[in-house]
Amino acid sequence: MSVVIAFLANIAVAIAKTVAAVLTGSASLVAEALHSWADAGNEVFLLVAERSGRRPRDRSHPLGYGRDVYFWSLFAAFGLFAVGAALSIVTGVQELLDPEPVTDYLVGYVVLAVAAILEGVSLTQSLRQVRRDSAAVERDAVDYVVNGSDATLRALVFEDVAALIGLALAAGSLALHQVTGDAFFDGLGSILIGVLLAVVAVLLIQRNRRFLVGASPPDAVRRAVLRQVLRHPAISRVTFLHLEFVGPGRLLVIAAVDLVDDDVESVIAVRLRQLGADIQRQDHVEVAALTLALPDEPSLEP
Fold first, then answer.
1. Are 12 and 151 within one domain?
2. How far apart are the first and last CA of the chain?
3. Pairing mode of beta strands 250-259, 285-292
4. pLDDT in tens, 42-76
5. Closest to 111 in 3D by CA, of 174, 43, 192, 160
């Protein structure tokens, strides 16, 4: 729902900014229009990411399709850089080299104000989801956005925050151009918007790369999973625990455990398989694989 709201908001804002850019001739508004069109295109990638990542695991993908989210989100981040950042910087440089007069300042201010309201609505919806999801896993909201496994939600929050900062830069540049009559400020505003988009894009690319190559959850999540495993009545201790994100909120769990009873090998194999199935029923566990702990291995403490 957050992606759909962001997509509709960005389409409406992009159209309004494009009209305002044509009417005013402002380079900053051109940069902001490019910004919104890039964001709208990115939302398409994010919608594909959400749809693809929800597919259940099968024989060809035993760990599921969760990492598809990071793949498509990487495309979205690169699009923000290639389209939004590069074209905004080019537009600003052209304005500095060949200044054009700006007219109808009021139109520009009105469009920027309406865009700020729409972007604010989109950000509010995203932050509601952040608060809900971070509370469910008992994590700080900011840490959940920056370091959490939900790439789609992170992209939405980063884009909305960048959009509001970009609108402030565009409004300030337009005002300075109007007060001073110097097109330098308008061109500078466009370049600053491009730099802002580039910074956001690089951050999103780095985050997605981290999860694509395999990222472990933070210590708080690790401790919570270890406590869940030890709560099982058939497990007396855990000596090894490997956790890795295989999708947003989805974990691969590999553990070496000591069982409560001393059964024969054939019975133990069945019990381990059943224990793995029990752990996989946890909301955030995609796959759980258990093996026996050696007698001399130290126990892990949650």
1. yes
2. 36
3. parallel
4. 778 888 888 888 888 888 888 888 888 898 888 88
5. 174
DSSP string covering the chain, please?
Answer: -HHHHHHHHHHHHHHHHHHHHHHH--HHHHHHHHHHHHHHHHHHHHHHHHHHHTSPP-SS-TT-STTHHHHHHHHHHHHIIIIIIHHHHHHHHHHHHS------HHHHHHHHHHHHHHHHHHHHHHHHHHHHHHHHTT--HHHHHHHSS-HHHHHHHHHHHHHHHHHHHHHHHHHHHHHH--THHHHHHHHHHHHHHHHHHHHHHHHHHHHHS--PPPHHHHHHHHHHHHTSTTEEEEEEEEEEEEETTEEEEEEEEEESS---HHHHHHHHHHHHHHHHTSTTEEEEEEEEPPTTSPPP--
Residue 299 lies in a domain: no
The predicted-structure confidence for 255-296, as pLDDT tens digits, reads as follows 888 888 766 656 777 888 888 888 888 878 888 888 888 777
Both 246 and 127 in one domain: the answer is: no
Asked whether residue 76 falls in the same domain as residue 138, the answer is yes
- 14, part of any domain: yes
CATH of the domain at 272: 3.30.70.1350
pLDDT higher than 90, residue 165 = yes
The domain boundary, picked from 161, 192, 212, lies at 212
The per-residue pLDDT of the chain, averaged, comes to 85
Q: List the 235-247 sheet strands across, edge first.
A: 235-247, 250-259, 285-292
Which amino acid is located at 69 in the chain? V
Shared domain check, 163 and 79: yes
Asked if residue 300 belongs to a domain, the reply is no
Give the domain-ending residue among 194, 212, 230: 212
**pLDDT above 70 (res 245):** yes
The range of the structural domain enclosing residue 97 comes to 2-212
Angstrom CA distances, 39 to 169, 200, 261, stand at 17, 12, 57
